[in-house]
Amino acid sequence: MSDESSLSEHEQRILEQIERGLAEEDPDFVRHVEDGRPPKKATRNLRLGVLGLIIGFGLLLGYTSSVVLGILGFLVMLGGAVLAGTSVRRLVAAGRPPGASVTRLLKGAKGKMQPRRRPDGDDQT
User: Fold this and answer.
1) How many CB atoms sit inside 10 A of residue 125's CB?
2) What's the pLDDT band for 1 if we cut at 50, 70, 90?
3) Domain count of the chain?
4) Which stretches does DSSP call E strand in the chain?
5) Residue among 80, 28, 31 at smallest CA distance from 54
């Protein structure tokens, strides 16, 4: 539907005029729209941020054995939260909501966390 061949010559000329006018008026916006795909780093950083939150939480739970471990856990969680937050912001700015990436990540984790069942119905431990 976005194929230019489906436009008449008059419509193509009008579209070209609009594009030129927009490029002259706001070149930064045009560059941003042309680079509409979110950077691959944003999705990867979102996953790393969530992983950092999980690892940091585990370290924070280690606070019961060591204060240093608890502080380290808090700092790792904080870094993971900042990384995930900035990644979400980049994905939303690029027009791609992070919901699909997070959903895939959570489904994969859920599948790994479910207990494995033996054919006779007993849980594996």
Assistant:
1) 5
2) very low
3) 1
4) none
5) 80
